[in-house]
């Protein structure tokens, strides 16, 4: 499951690297392949990353990584329904999934 904080961490890693990929997210955020893939889809919905390009990389659409601004964009995407919050029935935590990819 993808929490808001996990999504924010993945966003910051991708912005700093100026690209997002499953390998980058898996290594830096320490998540599995499926979670990394879901994070990348959600970051595209938020507007942090572009669509998949060469070698499976997604270009960063942000040049700076102000955590507060990225957090505000994630919160706005949640409020707009682009990112859908769900509850993990097994752990009772909120989780975020890309609205158009859920």
Automatic annotation (TrEMBL):
Residues 5-65 form the FtsK gamma domain. InterPro entries: Ftsk_gamma, WH-like_DNA-bd_sf, WH_DNA-bd_sf. Pfam families: FtsK_gamma. It comes from the Bacteria. SMART domains: Ftsk_gamma (SM00843). This is FtsK gamma domain-containing protein. It comes from Phytohabitans houttuyneae.
């Amino acid at each position: 499951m993808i929490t808001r904080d996990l999504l924010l961490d993945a966003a910051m890693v991708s912005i700093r690297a100026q690209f997002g990929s499953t390998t980058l997210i898996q290594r830096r955020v320490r998540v599995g392949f499926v979670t990394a893939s879901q994070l990348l889809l959600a970051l595209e919905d938020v507007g942090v990353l572009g669509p998949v390009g060469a070698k499976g990389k997604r270009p960063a659409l942000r040049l700076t990584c102000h955590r507060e601004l990225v957090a505000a964009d994630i919160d706005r995407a949640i409020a707009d329904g682009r990112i859908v919050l769900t509850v993990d029935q097994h752990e009772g935590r909120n989780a975020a999934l890309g609205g158009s990819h859920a």
